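Read as amino acids, tokens; as here:

___
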Amino acid sequence: MEAVLQHLRGAIERGDYAVGDKLPSEAELCRRLEVSRPVLREALRALQTMGLTVSRTGKGTFVVSDGAVADPTFGDYAASDLLEVRRHVEIPVAGYAALRRTPEDLDQLNGLLERMEQETDTTAWVAMDSLFHLAVAQAARNPVFRRVIEEIRDALARQSAFLNELGGRREQSNREHRAIVEALVDSSEHDAVEAMAHHLARVETTLTTIVRPPHRAGPSTDSVAGPGSPGGTSSASNTGDINTTGTTNTTESTEN
């Protein structure tokens, strides 16, 4: 899915599809890119989250910007608002959970972790991810904390799906979740706070990397270096470009 997204995003940012243009139909894009409709739809949803397109029922998908927004929206909440609230709520909540958790809380969290570490389906993993954060809030033994996480649960799931599809966050998230639970097992408020803070910092870093990828310098105005020389550029994308004939180029890929 990432290669499909990068192909479509690149086409929009290059101006192949200008602001106001309608993208080809799903059937046509699937034919050109030789991908399944579910994969294409995931890529189209990601384009909307990035603020590049909008879907109009019965009319299709239209380009609304030639550059990704710096602050994408997940459900009802902007990413920056969501992250701000999470830092101010989930970090201290983890500390309280370390001091107040029960054996039943630990059993639930360890059970979720084991299932998440074995899960290969993104949709199922994302559902358990939001349950994990809800369970940590439950372990803090304050119903207001749980209510806050319940309020943003849909946004958390949307953000989690976005980061896992495009940022390859699943295994890293599992390790970060494991560190949080280990701190709760040890009843270490300090370690729990540190582990949750690290987890949220990694979420923010990955999101920024996806939305604002590193700038690639263009060719010099004096001369154009070859693809293998310093400062040189190549016509191939570093994300496994997909051309409009459906051929996938096996070029170097970069991992978010």
